[in-house]
Amino acid sequence: MSYVLAKSQNNEILEAGECGGAVTSILKYLLDEGLVDGVLALSPQDDVYDAFPVFVTDSEDLLKTAGSYHCAPTMIGDLVQKYFIDKKVAFTVKPCDMRAVEELITRHKINRDNIYMIGLNCGGTVSPVSGRKMIDLFYEANPDDVVSEEIDKGQFIIELADGSEEAVKIHDLENEGYGRRNNCQRCDVKIPRKANIACGNWGAEDGWTFIEINDEKGQELIDGAKKAGILETKSPSDAAVEGRSKVENIMIKMAKKNQDATYPTVSEMTEWSRCISCYACRDVCPICWCFENCELNKPYFKDEANIPPVPIAFQGVRLSHMSFSCVDCGQCDDVCPMDIPVSLIFDKLQKKYYDRTGYVAGVSDDIKPPLYSPEKTEL
Amino acid sequence: MSDDLKIVGLLCNWCCYGGADTAGTARMQYSPNIRIIRVMCSGRINPSMIFKAFQEGADGVFVGGCHIGDCHYDAGNYKWSRRSKIVEDILEEFGIEKERFRHEWISASEGEKFQRTMEEFHKTLTKLGPLELE
């Protein structure tokens, strides 16, 4: 594990990218050298509240994907296993993406040799709908005029078309029920250390990207990109390394505080009676990979006459299948048409499982999913 | 029958089922509320089977397996013992008392232990009353 500061040598990328454009440059290097068949990246749509993943095979198109999108929380893990299983592909990962990919690797659904994971430090994401509402309420700007957004130093900063900026403290936003998504507020994995490299601006000087190299593959990547003349690097000062870990620690501390506050049991939550058995939470879950073989589709659990379903025969079954591997990505919350905070309960049980075994989904180094290992140990 | 509490029992073929058999052939008396389902190994019991039992109206679920180290398939009961912790955690979430779910290691020769366990479990469930899932 080592640290470098990096910056793109390509002027176009420098301009389009955020803090040095190192990520886009590395992706360009991978494509140009033919190390991957394609790059899976987020492409912005009409406004800052919308971006979706695109498969880029021409490095010219990469420019459009540069920049950060906090209001478009996506999940890369299940895309890779569903559509790119036999392709060599590089993609950027938030910590929850990385954890999902790691869990899928242990389930033999993704081949580690086929992928390059470029990690992005993540302080949290904002749901597009509440993001819009929040800007309407707390900022003096019209949500439609926002051209870019950034989370920095505990503030959610928006930039308008005329170049002016406006910032509000995330803490204040979250006290009012806005700000980052609930699962992000309690997430305590901020730096994706299982990705090949983890990039971000924490601790970095202006115009540079701070990169933590996590493994040999990551080192080769940086060396290669340097050799190809697309990236310039220098080693960071001790103060920079320290500054970065300070940011991380503050974030983790905040997350722990939020973890203490929330987590009622299912039987205490009235929201569950709203369930309409649409299975959207299961379908979107990156860890659930059985698809049509899902036990919930079996005749002995299919209960179409009963809506809302008996919670234990629906979420209970899902919980027993994968709650110990929940990566707390919050996708189930996002897709639920009845706004049930589904992820709350899954994350809670993963935390309970952690208390029992010390296993953190997608972060611990276990080779087998913990419940399926042949080991002769009791809990 | 004096009451209609329903207990679903999932018993491993090699040990606990034999234990129940021993209790039966020795004419040991225990409350007749248990409905026994024989499985080949406690390691093949999924948490969803327990949940299904509760959903279908069981007031308690009992799982019996071989003693640790005696598994006919080497490590099946280790797997079950780890899984049972998850079951406990999940049942708690759905407002089902953890006393309604019990598991015990009972060998084929321990008819007396099977009898005793059943009596105890029945007593616990009588105290708790029938399960009401909302």
Q: Would you kindly provide a written description of the structure presented here, covering whatever features stand out?
A:
The complex is a heterodimer of chains A (379) and B (134). By secondary structure, chain A is of the alpha/beta class. Chain A folds into 3 domains: 2-121 and 188-260, no CATH class; 126-179, Nuclear Transport Factor 2, Chain: A (Roll); 266-378, no CATH class. Chain A has 13 helices and 11 strands. In chain A, strand 2 (38-44) and strand 3 (51-56) form a beta hairpin. Chain B has helices at 16-25, 47-55, 76-93, 111-128; strands at residues 7-12, 34-39, 60-65, 101-105. A 4-stranded parallel beta sheet of chain B has the order 2-1-3-4, with helices on both faces. In chain B, helix 3 (76-93) links the parallel strand 3 (60-65) and strand 4. Chain A binds chain B through residues 265-267, 295, 300-301, 310-313, 316-317, 319-321, 323-324, 345, 348-349, 352-353, 356, 370-372, 374-379, and chain B through 46-48, 51-52, 54-55, 68, 75, 78-79, 81-83, 85-87, 89-96, 133-134.
